[in-house]
Model the fold of this input.
Amino acid sequence: MSSEGSISTEVRGNVFLIGLNRPEKYNGYTPTMAKQLVEAFTRLDEDDSLWVGLIHAHGDHFTAGLDLPKWTNAMEDSTGVSRPREGCDPVALGRACKKPVITAVKGITYTFGIELALAGDIVIAADNARFSQLEPARGIHATGGATFRFVERAGWGNAMYHLLTSDVFDAAEALRIGLVQEVVPFGQEFERALELAQHIATTQAPLAVQATKASARRFLNEGVQACIDALDPVQAKLMQSQDSIEGVQSFIERRQAKFQGK
Done:
């Protein structure tokens, strides 16, 4: 394996697995990994056969965050860390992925690891996970979305408590403040995340799932009225889909719907 690490990918049915793969360095995030992660997210976003993404990590830890010495130049000249000029942005500061993303975290989950998880939709944490948004202790501030997504998920006081102190907190605290949605025993986080991903991929209509995520993001990005204004037009479009017809028919016939994402 390259000392720069890599991003693994695997397709399981309609679920796309994306793995941080530099375990010998606690999955410290490098520019090489960043390029490959953008490519993986772009594939997830654009491939109509991929309905749910699952982000995980190889080894015992999710990620120690950025391998800072490898990012110094990018930070100094304001080109940033995770703002791809083309493709889908893993931390959704640029083009966001329209598909649902579930993240399984474990062990060390620092800085960029938190931001990657917060940019997704559902987070499953191992009970040994420990978190820290420690940029201020290094003389910088978080630039991958934590400064506002932490507030969205946890509220102002909880966000400031952890962002301004650079403390290390555990999975129970992450669950309490809403950064993660479930805590499971270490070693079960991937399977639980996969179970959820497969549930969404096999029981929910893909276009409806994407529209639901888009509506929620529209509220966060544009406000209540923009969200309200889009509800009926989007619903009318969904009603014209084959999946909508199948959803009604499966209800009438009292059977599991077989959606195609069309």
Summary: The radius of gyration is 19 Å. The chain has two domains: 6-202, 205-253. The beta strands are 6-12, 15-21, 52-57, 101-105, 108-110, 122-126, 130-132, 169-170, 182-184.
